[in-house]
Amino acid sequence: MIERVVFDPAGPHPMMAIVDDVLQSLQPQPGDDDVAWVASAPGGSLEEATLPLDPR
């Protein structure tokens, strides 16, 4: 049985959470827009999320 979730355990700022809290945060909320969530990218647009090509 999993008792806790650890984020970034080897990093400079590890964090721990209770499993029930993590699961609840992943559940859809009444105001969520599924299409916008799936279509969006970090930074707000797909263009901003693309990475430059490796020039090697």
List the SSEs and their pairings.
Elements: E1 4-7, E2 15-18, H1 19-26, H2 34-39, H3 46-49
Antiparallel strand pairs: 1-2
If you had to describe this structure to a student in words, what would you say it looks like?
This protein has a two-stranded antiparallel sheet. The protein has 56 residues and is α+β, with helices and mostly antiparallel strands. It is built from three helices and two strands. The longest helix is centred in the middle third of the chain and has 8 residues, at 19-26. The mean pLDDT is 77. A hairpin with a 7-residue loop joins strand 1 (4-7) and strand 2.
H and E order: EEHHH
Taking all residues together, what is the mean pLDDT?
A: 77
Radius of gyration: 17 Å
Q: What's the total number of strands?
A: 2
* Order of the strands making up the biggest sheet: 1-2
Strand content: 5-15%
Main beta sheet strand tally, sense and closure: 2 strands, antiparallel
Which runs of at least 5 residues are low in confidence (pLDDT < 50)? Answer: none
Name the structural class: alpha+beta
Q: Quickly count the helices.
A: 3
What's the end-to-end separation, in Å? 46 Å
Question: Can you tell me the overall shape?
Answer: flat
> What percent of residues adopt helix (DSSP H or I)?
25-40%
